[in-house]
Amino acid sequence: MVPTRELALQTSQICIEVSKYIGARVMVTTGGTSLKDDIMRIYENVHIIIATPGRILDLMEKNVTQMDRCNMLILDEADKLLSQDFKGMLDKVISYLPKERQILLYSATFPLTVEQFMRKYLKGPYEINLMDELTLKGVTQYYAFVQERQKVHCLNTLFSKLQINQSIIFCNSTQRVELLAKKITELGYSCYYIHAKMSQQHRNRVFHDFRAGLCRNLVCSDLFTRGIDIQAVNVVINFDFPKMAETYLHRIGRSGRFGHLGIAINLITYDDRFALHRIEQELGTEIKPIPKVIDKSLYVSEFQLEDDVENVSK
Ligand SMILES: *[C@@H]1O[C@H](CO)[C@@H](O)[C@H](O)[C@H]1NC(C)=O
Ligand SMILES: *[C@@H]1O[C@H](CO)[C@@H](O)[C@H](O)[C@H]1NC(C)=O
Ligand SMILES: *[C@@H]1O[C@H](CO)[C@@H](O)[C@H](O)[C@H]1NC(C)=O
Where do the Helicase ATP-binding domain residues begin and end (predicted)? Predict the structure, then answer.
């Protein structure tokens, strides 16, 4: 179970790759697609379903799914799935499962809702904490102090100075995403945008094309933050600084995954100054003032490769 359609697609791609070798049949089902098609597919034997909560519940309630042999439930981004956004849906899903089942929760944060859920459903669970490993490792974080009206100019300067392979730029609203994407295009840089108010089909296409490297920059709202992992992204820019540490972590965590290096640049206005310090403290991380020149070895991977070779020869 995953909270967004994009994540469902990404996870299913990997799952399909891996399951080739064990002959498992994988199905992905999310809102915004034909329910009828899903029902047809589910009648063939399926071993693994990757789903968003709304659609799978729908199938369960229609008695389409036969859950009595489904003995494993995995919640990815559990903190999100157990948040108000999916109020009570997971309780319902679990009510369809057999008594003897295993539940696995994966989460970057550990809020009270996750703890309560654990106490309610998990018997003698193992807890594994890899947060020190994950999170912001490999990502060098900077801030630039700017006025609101200087932001686009500042972004233009960053584009001209940085060696961007692919970048993701975050804004705080749908309108600002569209406006900024327009500005960036006018500045002469290639740019896509994605936000929650676009049709699912459109979102999928943008996501797919960006992933395939058809465009260098992507402007988006927080729709896009969770668990999305595009290794070619080496620069993340918070055009609008987030208010919550959790949002920050999900946005920035992106570029540093799997040892890939990246930088994060935060445009900070006077109004953001307290949020900056608070988030730094909450995450126990350092966000440094942006230097005149950013060392390429921090985020450009040819350098990373050279380093590796050097280490090997040593
Ligand atoms: C699904 O099955 C249950 C139990 O067999 C039954 O009570 C319920 O009415 C069925 N729902 C639908 C929509 O067919
Ligand atoms: C988004 O950022 C702009 C500029 O900093 C600000 O004026 C606006 O109030 C913010 N909107 C939200 C929803 O936080
Ligand atoms: C740079 O991005 C392209 C796609 O845009 C990708 O194919 C390539 O692997 C990326 N390079 C690195 C070093 O990540």
Answer: 1-128
How far away, in angstroms, is 172 Cα from ligand 2 center?
A: 6
| Cα separation values, 17 from 10, 26, 52, 85, 148, Å | 11, 10, 20, 30, 45
pLDDT digits (tens, 9 = 90+) for 204-253: 889 889 989 999 999 999 876 665 667 888 999 999 999 988 888 888 87
Q: Which three-class secondary structure state does DSSP give residue 237? A: strand
| Structural domain contains residue 277 | yes
Q: Tell me how many domains the chain contains.
A: 2
Ligand 3 closest atom vs CA 231: 14
By most ligand atoms within 8 Å of CB, the mutation choice from 171, 172, 241, 269 for ligand 2 is: 172
Q: What is the largest CA-CA distance in the chain?
A: 63
Task: Kindly state if the Cβ of 129 falls inside 6 Å of ligand 1.
Answer: no
Q: Confidence class of residue 314 from pLDDT cuts 50, 70 and 90?
A: very low
Range of the domain at 104: 5-128
Ligand lying nearest the CA atom of residue 218: 3
Residue 188 inside a domain? The answer is yes
